[in-house]
Specification:
Number of domains: 1
Strand order of the largest sheet: 1-10-11-4-3-2
Strand content: 35-45%
Number of strands: 11
Shape: elongated
Number of helices: 7
């Protein structure tokens, strides 16, 4: 079985053997339980105090929009509160707050699921909690990891699986940040911490399986965030203003609520004003030439 285990690990890119005496010592040194608070405290990126409320983003002109974004077959609602104020004679300042608390409630069901199901490896993720803490979004959950002998490396999915070598649950915590790219809000993982425990957890660390699972988590997280960006829209009456978003970041709303602050500017040149007047004319707000 030792040779078969090494073959499965070779497919994962982890070519390590396990000295039996060292494994025995590891059994006594790794009998801990998963501690979510410890997981979060081990994250390298720690939050700063960034709390916000919609009233912080008021301006001389205020508006609020409720909209939805599609994600994994669902339409997820969010609210966008914003304010516009004069900055210079030709530009307006723009500040807004995306309220994502309704999406936050659905996050465990939305993000949990199978991350990898190959011949030798199965990784299932379950999200327990998602909350804002300062300028970070903290995610805490677990991954169920199973390592199999792969009888046929050319087989797809689970068809070539043989004996199961390892089955364990690993605690996981991750920190994500919001940022602005190309006028849309993107989310990126700032850090990930895995916490294998007990004898099997020590073995998972030793043979390099922890690193492989972390790679799977990071890859799938990147795929998900690239497919699910939020591009806030202006009210139709102001759509011709085309605000330029140049900054954004995570904000905590209330106690752990997830929000994203946005800021930018709006051009108020003569061309922009003519476009706005054309919209107002088409809506009968101002008259046109007879």
């Amino acid at each position: 079985m030792g040779i078969e285990l090494q073959r499965s690990l070779a497919e994962l890119g982890a070519r390590k053997t396990v000295p039996f005496a060292f494994v025995c010592l590891l059994f006594f040194a790794s009998c801990a339980t998963t501690n979510p608070e410890l997981l979060k405290s081990e994250l390298n990126a720690r939050p700063s105090a960034q709390n916000a409320s919609p009233s912080d983003y008021a301006g001389e002109v205020q508006f609020s929009i409720s909209n939805k974004i599609p994600a994994r077959g669902k339409n997820l609602p969010y609210t966008f509160n914003a304010g516009i104020s004069s900055v210079t004679s030709t530009r307006l300042g723009f500040r807004g707050l995306l309220d994502l608390r309704e999406i936050q409630v659905q996050a465990p069901a939305l993000l949990s699921g199978t991350l990898e199901q190959s011949c030798s490896l199965n990784v299932d993720f379950e999200l327990d909690d998602a909350r804002a803490s300062g300028d970070l979004i903290e995610l805490v959950g677990s991954v169920d990891v199973e390592l199999y002998r792969c009888r046929n490396e050319e087989s797809e999915g689970t068809n070539g699986r043989g004996v199961r070598f390892i089955s364990t649950t690993v605690g996981i915590a991750a920190a994500a940040r919001a940022n602005v790219q190309d006028q849309c809000v993107h989310f990126d993982l700032a850090d990930v911490v895995l916490q294998p425990t007990g004898f099997v957890g020590g073995l998972v660390n030793l043979i390099g399986l922890t690193e492989r699972v972390e790679e799977v988590v990071l890859t799938k997280a990147k795929e998900f965030t690239e497919e699910n960006v939020i591009c806030p829209e202006m009210p139709s009456e102001l759509s011709s203003l085309n605000p330029v978003l140049d900054a954004g970041g995570t904000r905590e709303i209330g106690d752990g609520g997830i929000g994203v602050a946005l800021s930018g500017s709006i051009d108020t040149s003569a061309m922009t004003m003519m476009e706005l007047l054309a919209v107002m004319q088409s809506r009968g707000i101002v008259g046109g030439a007879g």
